[in-house]
Design a protein that fits this description.
The structure holds two protein chains of two kinds. Chain A is α/β, with parallel strands linked by helices. Chain A has one domain: FAD/NAD(P)-binding domain (3-Layer(bba) Sandwich), CATH 3.50.50. Chain A is 24% helix and 20% strand. Chain A has twelve helices and 21 strands. In chain A, the strands form five sheets. A seven-stranded mixed β-sheet of chain A has the order 5-13-14-16-12-19-15, covered by helices on one side. A five-stranded parallel β-sheet of chain A has the order 7-2-1-11-21, covered by helices on one side. In chain A, α1 links the parallel β1 and β2. In chain A, α6 packs across α11. Chain B is mainly alpha-helical. Chain B contains six helices and no strands. In chain B, α1 packs across α5. The chains are: A alpha/beta, B mainly alpha. At the A-B interface, α3, α9 and α10 of A face α2, α4, α5 and α6 of B.
């Protein structure tokens, strides 16, 4: 760590949130010569000092380092009201949810953009390329045991080997990962002798390796290690951390209002207001609509609606020999299945495996299974213990569904409040079409496992509860202010000089693929439009 | 936390991750997972640890002739948890899932290997139960030639 950047007293642009997209906007704007202030609720962690590699310490939602809550971990996490959702994944801190993502950076399925978005897939490609070069993104180089088995299973059921970044048909492929190249073995495995990914398997709980590496040299290219340092290096960007934005201030501008200032609360309880010529919301699909609503900005049925989550599921099976799912990057191979979503090999530490695959609904009742699995749903007691004893021989596949839009899914305000204002209600209930697609994917995952050699009697479908591991679509883009919140360039229809540059502007779930790269491409594009539209740069 | 409440939480945790005499390997009760549950329940909401124990006992007594939750057989405890999952008060229905989440975390996370300052000073039970080698700095056999 070398500080939070030069202090910016009179910013041109305020970016709210230093997560997966806010840091991208900050870097792009600062490089055009604008002065940028980034307000971030959490801290800028030093992976070498702060990340422990311990699953509960890092990831638990109550006092884990990567939780959504104050940096004083003895204080309660920030409350949220859940409706139909199990766990809400939000992360305070520079890097945001890229601190615990797997580094998987596929592009959207072209048809899912072309069929529904106000911009064409082809318009996104130059921005994809720019992000892919900056992070950078590379094709996973390694076939660890779990990938070897996954690929064997895919080929056993007829999935073809696909190549290239544009997914127009189904097939398995090596993951496009924002993770540095494989390190050379060194003794000890430590920086600077070892540079790149050491295959430690800790992508989901905070990348801290190689041992001794500065944050910019840690292997996984979360924005804490990539875009935020690049923004800081311009000398025109300050990351003001521990600052939770509580309000957006507007002024009259004729037919609509114009953004004027941002109010925020520090962790010490001080309340401040800072003005700027433009503001970018990059708080994520929950906080962005919450902030809009709690600030009393113009109401629209589109605000907070159409949340999609890819409603994850996990299917696992026990192999004859060791799999060692904790070794290697979390996921290095996937099978894209347009029209349904995708499946990917999934590495977990034992606790994350237990919690992800055991906390589904209580549907694991005796009786005929309803699919190619021996068990489905929650596992407790002796069943759980036997599954955990087979941990080292277990192969797990994650299922990510292309979930259907439902306007009733999304974010509203509850009548409860915390120190930052009204607490959001996050609602997600799947449609019948989503459930059918997810079942189809889970069946394919089970077939891949059996094709890879798993004992059919060991196949377990978690039927995991909805979560916000991925979340998008609550402030969608479009031409019509009646059905969208921002225009195709990311500026709010109702508020001049207020832009949104996070996954909330997604029109749909982009077909199922991991959303980070697409969100970063759109953030890059939005930053360019903002700079040209209001600063002539 | 009062002894009775701790005993109740321990009995609940043992449903999710059983140990002796119901299972061959150690489980939640063997590592006194009630301390872990009580800590996190009270972090979620002050007083929730004792409140959860009181609710488990209340439902147990109503359903099983005045018997406390900790005195029930495992199958009976499961019935109590199922009953709470369908409770008339919606806010209570999630309690069994929260208890299960915490019981699993107590056993399969690092807690059983930590000292009072959070340092891992011995192998946690869950790593032994699963054969997990613990966090590390990389896997040499997956790296390039030196």
């Amino acid at each position: 760590m070398t500080g939070l950047g030069e202090p910016i007293v009179r910013p041109d642009v305020i970016v709210i949130g230093a997560g997966g997209t806010g840091a991208v906007v900050a870097k792009e704007l600062a490089e055009t010569g604008l002065y940028v202030l980034v307000l971030e609720a959490g801290r800028w962690h030093d992976p070498g000092r702060d990340f422990t590699g311990l699953e509960w310490d890092m990831l638990n939602p109550f006092d884990g380092l990567l939780r959504w809550g104050p940096s004083d971990r003895s204080k309660r996490a920030w409350p949220r009201v859940r409706d139909g959702i199990g766990l809400l994944f939000q992360t305070a801190g520079v890097g945001g949810n890229t601190l615990h993502f797997g580094g998987n950076c596929p592009r959207a399925y072209p048809a899912s953009v072309d069929d529904a978005w106000p911009i064409r897939y082809g318009e996104l490609v130059p921005y994809y390329r720019r992000v892919e070069a900056t992070l950078p993104v590379g094709t996973a180089e390694l076939v660890a045991r779990k990938e070897e088995l996954f690929i064997r299973g895919c080929e056993a059921i007829g999935f073809e080997h696909a190549h290239g970044p544009d997914v127009r048909s189904g097939g398995w492929r090596m993951q496009p990962n924002a993770i540095a190249s494989v390190a050379r073995a060194a003794d000890p495995i430590a920086f600077p002798a070892a540079r790149g990914c050491t295959q430690c398997g800790e992508c989901l709980i905070g990348c801290r390796n190689p041992d001794g590496a500065p944050v910019e040299q840690t292997a996984k290219r979360g924005t804490n290690a990539s875009y935020a340092p690049l923004a800081r290096a311009t000398g025109r960007c300050e990351f003001r951390t521990g600052c939770f934005v509580t309000g957006l201030v507007t002024e009259d501008a004729g037919e609509r209002v114009r953004i004027k200032a941002v109010r925020y609360r520090t962790e010490a309880g001080e309340r401040n207001e800072v003005e700027a010529k433009a503001v970018v919301l990059a708080c994520g699909a929950i906080e962005t609509p919450r902030l809009w609503l709690s600030s009393g900005l113009p109401a629209s049925p589109a605000v907070g609606s159409n949340l999609t989550t890819h409603w994850f599921d996990y299917v696992s099976g026990v192999m004859p020999g060791d799999v060692e799912m904790n070794q290697g990057q979390t996921s290095m191979a996937r099978a894209d299945l347009p029209g349904y979503g995708f499946i990917e090999v999934q590495g977990f530490g034992p606790l994350t495996f237990a919690l992800a695959t055991s906390m589904g609904p209580a549907t694991d009742a005796p009786g005929a299974p309803d699919g190619p699995w021996a068990h489905r749903g929650r596992t407790w007691g002796a069943t759980l213990k036997r599954r955990m004893e087979a941990y080292r021989r277990t192969l797990t596949i994650a299922v990510c569904v292309d979930d259907e839009n439902d306007p009733s899914n999304g974010v509203t305000l509850s009548d409860r409040a915390d120190e930052h204002g009204p607490v959001p209600v996050v609602r997600y209930h799947a449609t019948p079409a989503t459930i059918a697609r997810r079942d189809w994917l889970a069946r394919r995952a089970a077939e891949v496992l059996v094709g890879a050699g798993a004992d059919p009697a060991s196949i377990h479908r978690a039927d995991a509860l909805p979560s916000t591991i991925h979340m998008h679509g609550t402030m969608r883009m479009g031409f019509d202010p009646a059905t969208s919140v921002v225009d195709p360039e990311g500026e709010a229809h109702a508020v001049e000089r207020l832009f949104i540059a996070d996954t909330s502007v997604f029109v749909n779930g982009i077909g199922g693929p991991n959303p980070t790269l697409t969100a970063q491409a759109i953030a890059t594009r939005t930053a360019g439009h903002l700079a040209r539209r209001y600063f002539g740069s | 936390m009062p002894t009775d409440a701790a005993r109740t939480l321990r009995a609940a945790a043992a449903v999710f991750v059983p140990g002796a005499p119901h299972d061959a390997s150690p489980g939640a009760a063997d590592v006194e997972a009630d301390r872990f549950l009580a800590h996190y329940l009270d972090l979620i909401q002050p007083g929730l640890g004792e409140g959860a124990a009181a609710l488990l006992d209340e439902v147990a007594r109503a359903r099983f002739q005045g018997r406390a939750f900790a005195s029930l057989e495992v199958a009976e405890r499961v019935q109590v948890l199922d009953s709470i999952e369908h409770h008339d008060v919606e806010q209570l229905r999630e309690l069994p899932s929260v208890l299960g989440f915490l019981a699993i975390a107590a056993v399969y996370g690092e807690w059983t290997g930590q000292d009072e300052r959070g340092r891992v000073v011995r192998r946690p039970l869950g790593w032994d139960l699963t054969g997990f080698g613990g966090p590390g700095r990389g896997f040499r056999h997956l790296l390039g030639e030196p």
